[in-house]
Structure prediction request, 103 residues.
Amino acid sequence: MAAWTDIEKQKLRKLAAEGQTPVRMVDHFPGRTRNAIVGQMHRMGLQCREEWMRQRANNPETDLIVRLRCKPWGWDDHSIAQAIGQDVRTVRKVIETHTEFAA
Prediction:
């Protein structure tokens, strides 16, 4: 793949500042993969929304729910609840309090 152009880098900065995830950014960069976007963000010193959400989580259980929900494969509420041994309502409550999950 060709090197990133200045225009693409500007667009990447803008989308990252808006809180877009690399998964959603792919639509703005035809021919680029999510991994290419994550790599370029890393090289540019930009932060992924997933990283920002993990840093914002204030307890281990919330952090785990945030990490599982943010992964590209997007665990659903029931899978997260089963994996951490919690009730689905508890998981949903955490997700609802983290507005970053909103589309």
About this structure: The chain has seven helices and no strands.
